[in-house]
Amino acid sequence: MSNLATGTPEAYPAIDKHASQLRIFYKKLSRNRAALIGGYLILLLIIISIVAPFFTVYDPVLVDYDTKLLSPSSTHWLGTDHNGRDIFTRLIHGMHITLYIGFLSVFFGMLVGIPMGIIAGYYGKIVDTVLMRFIDILLAFPGILLAIALVSVLGGSINNVIIAVGVFSVPGFARVVRGSTLAVKKLEYIDAIRALGASDGRIIFLHILPNIISPIIVQATVRIAYSILIASALSFLGLGAQPPTPEWGAMLSAGRSYMFDHPHVAFFPGLAIMIVVLAFNIFGDGIRDAFDPR
Amino acid sequence: MTVFMLRRLIQTIPVIIGVTFIVFSLMHLIPGDPAVIMAGETAPDEQVERMRERLGLNDPIHVQYLKYMGNLLQGDLGQSVRSSRPVWDEIKPRIRVTVALSLYSTLLSIVIGVIAGVISAVRKNSLLDSSLMLAALFGLSMPTFWFGLMAIRYVSVEFGLLPPSGWGTWQQAILPVVSLGATGAAIIARMTRSSMLDVINQDYMRTALAKGLKKRVVIYKHGLKNALIPVVTVVGIEIGVLMSGSIITETVFAINGMGRLVIDAIRARDFPMVQGVVLVFTIIFVMANLLVDVSYRYLNKRIDLN
Q1: Helix pair A264-291, A87-123: axis angle to 10 deg
Q2: Which of A67, A141, B135, B201 has the least CB density, counted as fewest CB within 10 Å?
Q3: Measured between alpha carbons, how far is residue A45 from residues A232, A284, A288, B191, B209 in Å?
Q4: For B215-233, what is the mean pLDDT?
Q5: Which residue has the higher pLDDT, B206 or A282?
Q6: Which fold has domain B95-299?
Q7: Is the per-residue pLDDT at A178 higher than 90?
Q8: Which pLDDT score is estimated for A10?
Q9: Is residue A11 part of a domain?
Q10: Residue A201 has what pLDDT?
């Protein structure tokens, strides 16, 4: 059982095509204020991460000891770090790294977790038992420990962080998808389609997958927020992105030694992480309310 | 109950075996030759060979695993590459610190989370409810290490209220426990609120009120007991989050527990130590979850856990 579990999906009539699935999704979403605010906030962050780096005045990695550890001012909005680099510039240039890690690690988790969940739920019996016991083993590792262990042997880099955090979100997807698949599989129309001679692959891709999209999306948004937090923690521990990459967790970690006299070097990267995670959490709350009304 | 506990205990055995297999495999996931990495890139060949011999890397992989399991069953977690001492001897004195830190944080997050959640649910849509849930949303979204560092910077350094690091006195425990427990409290508060709201709308609550019982009695005696059932499962998951979170918190507050041990071991590329700590952490977590399951059963006797 998981607090992230999303219960059963809404079973839409079989006549629904993918397009109308998405339309229903959007319709429900637009009726929820939190989901809208969160969604627009995320959109804004994505745009900033793509466009804003072109407009920054300072270089994000170039060292300049003349401007070392300056407090926030009108020239350096959020001050400078121990290498004299403008913190605002570094945060802006690091934003895409944070989002990239968040999206890609969850994508990795989906890529592994969704097929596992569908196969376990659809085929049942021994396949289900084996796959779910494997998930139980992954869940036996407390919290982020497996991610820490994985990234420690693979070595610190952004790609390895994505893999480690991705593995961490596999069980969540596998369980949610398995539960939803079981619910959809029981519907009469699936039996009818099978009786008409549809193959397993056709049933899974054309009839089961479109029906379990909502719980997957709910799970994904919640996971992105969490993944961003974990990835920044790994970087903070020195296991993730390495300096001089303007990754926020790594910036915070580097700022630690200077924060007693210059708290801004540690304060702003942490605040940035919180704002992004907050946006995803608000969106996630809204989306959960819209699709999982309990 | 005894039968249930025994069965549950037996069920954990395959999980633990699976865990040992993954922990064992960690050493073989290292890109390149683990012996070279642990002996050092510049080490002479014979030193690398000695390291390989010491780690048993010359045996076929299934022999390595069987040897590893055989040693584990005798309580031998291997030898630290860095200090040459048995891994278990280094872990043992630190278990208490990490377990205490996780336990206090869990307790704190349960107490704060449940109280905040109940207040929020009872006063649904009030200003108090909104502010509590907003605080919970922030608690859920902030990085614990950032919160910890800011607490050190402002509470300890600026105002000198509490010691900034270490473990031993109760004063030293406050900041780490609060910073580790904050996220858990946020999650439990949100869970308690929604679970409590579900319960408040149940028929038996209305019946109890209609019987003329006091609202307070109904809410706390009938409501809370039922509302806590889903919260207990969240607590089970939270224990794991807090245990692994202690790795970060111990690093932030310079606490000499298992978390700092594993981070130091990773930096020194001391992989037998990393394997040992990961395994001990996981076994403690599995046992803690067993306890949670038993209390779940105790709270809700209707549930068939078999």
Answers
A1: 30
A2: B201
A3: 17, 16, 21, 28, 49
A4: 80
A5: A282
A6: MetI-like fold (1.10.3720)
A7: yes
A8: 46
A9: no
A10: 85
In a domain, A5, yes or no: no
Nearest CA in chain B to A225: B141
Q: Which of residues 204-263 of A touch B (CB under 8 A)?
A: 225, 229, 232-233, 236-239, 249, 252, 256, 259-260, 263
Residue range(s) defining the domain that contains residue A200:
26-291
User: What total of structural domains would you count in chain A?
Assistant: 1
Residue ranges of chain B assigned to CATH 1.10.3720.10? 95-299
Q: Supply the pLDDT for residue B306.
A: 40
- The verdict on B107 touching A (C-beta cutoff 8 Å) is no
A52 CB neighbour count, 10 Å cutoff:
16
Of residues A67 and A238, the one with the higher pLDDT is A238
Asked if A5 and B237 count as a contact pair (C-beta separation under 8 A), the reply is no
Record: contact A153-B282, CB cut-off 8 A: no
Q: A218 in a domain, yes or no?
A: yes
Q: How far is A225 from chain B (nearest CA, A)?
A: 8
Q: What's the CATH number where A51 sits?
A: 1.10.3720.10
Residue A8 lies in a domain: no
Give the chain B residue nearest A145 (alpha carbons): B244
Q: Are A82 and A255 in contact (CB under 8 A)?
A: yes
More confident residue, B1 or B156: B156
Instruction: Provide the whole-model pTM.
Output: 0.88
Instruction: Pick the residue from chain A with its C-alpha nearest to B282.
Output: A141
Task: Evaluate whether ipTM surpasses 0.95.
Answer: no
Mean pLDDT to the nearest integer, A159-167: 93
Q: What's B85's DSSP letter?
A: S
Residue type, B204: Y
